[in-house]
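User: Hi! I'm working on a homework problem where we have to compare a predicted structure to a textbook description. Could you give me the structure for the chain below?
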Amino acid sequence: MTTGSLFERVRELEPLLPGAVYLWHRDADGRSSIPYAGSGVLEAFGVERRSATLDARRILERVHPDDLDGLVASIEASGETLRPWLYEFRIRRPDGTVRWLAARSLPERLADGATQWTGFVRDVTEDRLLSDRFRKSEALLRQVTDALHDVVCLVDGEGRIEFCTPSSYLALGREATALEGQRLRELFDERDWEEAEGLLNGTDADPIELRGAHAEGREVWFEATSRRVAGHAGVVVSCRDRTARVMDRRRLLHEIGYRRTLVELMAEMLAAELDDRFYQRLVERAVELVPGAQAGSMLLWNAGSVAYRYVAATGLDLDALRQIRMTPEILGRSQPPRIERVAPFDRDAELEPDVLRAIESAGRFSEIVMSLSVPIRAGGEVRGFLNLDTFEDPSAFDDAAIEVAGALATQVAVALQRLELQASLREQQERFQHQAVHDPLTNLPNRRLFLDRLEQAMRRARRRESRVGVIFLDLDGFKQVNDLYGHATGDAVLIETARRVQDALRAEDTAARLGGDEFAIVLNEVHDRSDLDLVGARLRASLAKPFGSFKGQKLEIAASIGYALHPEDGEELETVLNVADNAMYREKNAR
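Assistant: Happy to help. Predicted structure tokens:
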């Protein structure tokens, strides 16, 4: 392949690859040069492409001093072995900022003994920041699981432990990391292996008592339960140390239900959404488990109203409770908040009339004779309260009830913190994914997403034997707008152009900003070329309107437009793009 044809091939590949395309050449005597540098080299390195091709040192000068030796060594190693060169390194841009780049290229040995690499380099700074955030979030999740006192294991479909809480060391003298990868039954004494296998079913059966396999041979008894996890092939197994059981039978029955709820909570922590249904289920289960409870509710802090709001209730009218704005003063809880038995609201207290009316209309709220208030702490803050109520016994909620309610509230807090963290991670991921394929100024799809949409549209058109239209649009005289009125005005024009282009299209069509003042459009399911003419006419009419007044003059900008119709103008994506692009420039040159 000649040098000219190689350059032409690289230029054709450049729009399809991320970042900057390049050719790196090293003579047999070790001298390096850059025969070709794509347009993205300026954005990647802050070096003009012409400057880079004239002197390769301009690129190496941008490499962070701490990374330069490693980069050079990796290039030399790739040249010796002719293996693909993959390397991530830092650069210092002219403005002093440090960015991370990832380079990918394929080496080949030339006839004269020289080595030439063909590849691309792209900015991966945001990718690395995202990875760092994920690592920190994972560490935070680890801290949450470390707070659990019971031995809780996530078991895969083959019966092997994927994850175990650190509490395994206190219960069995065995590190959690040493248990990972072992079969679940090895957590227990060999005499109970057959029963332990039953945990893998993940059914709602009552808990079973099993002997634990302690590292020092000590006798340990577990009460073990398991439950299947939505979206996972295995089960969550929870083991509570029952070696020192001293409870009576009634207390034991409550504890069995309590353990089952903990397993359910753990499963929901892995699969559920943080919504009112989740809160409602927690309150209902708490009323079932805590001795003496006949009703219950949950209050969570609402920053918007600077008060606590009811999000769930059982045995009471939740719709009426939702109308109540509970300030810390109305609640009257201890400071700092703690688990406590509290008497009902004092009817002689000075309550706001609307609060008093809401309380009186909330079902049996006025009949409560005693409540157990349990603060919900997450992230070092009191996020709300779990309230359990009785209508009959002012002496309700003994130490046993307080213990169960406190443990349940701890699990609620863990669920809150984990689910909120997962929601935050999903939101961040969606935002980064959106940013990766959209123009930050206009929020239109960028070149990458445009090409993907066009490729999909062409595939559909081939299956349905239909047509796809492509329109290229370039603003005429846009550079003068920036020069005369400044870049802020230029940005405003681009944003308004994007809005007008979108308004001229159907919902199923795609408008994209390719860069600068160049836009592109994919028209799905067009009948013939007249449809392109119709859309083009709408675009011209819309863009012909003034863009506002600046410095006392109306700002008017024309646009050059070019069309292409698939399959008439080409079967391949690149052919269709070239037809539309050439048509646009013919119109621009004819002005």
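For your comparison, note the following. Residues 144 and 188 are 25 Å apart (CA to CA). The first strand starts at residue 20 and ends at 26. Good luck with the assignment!
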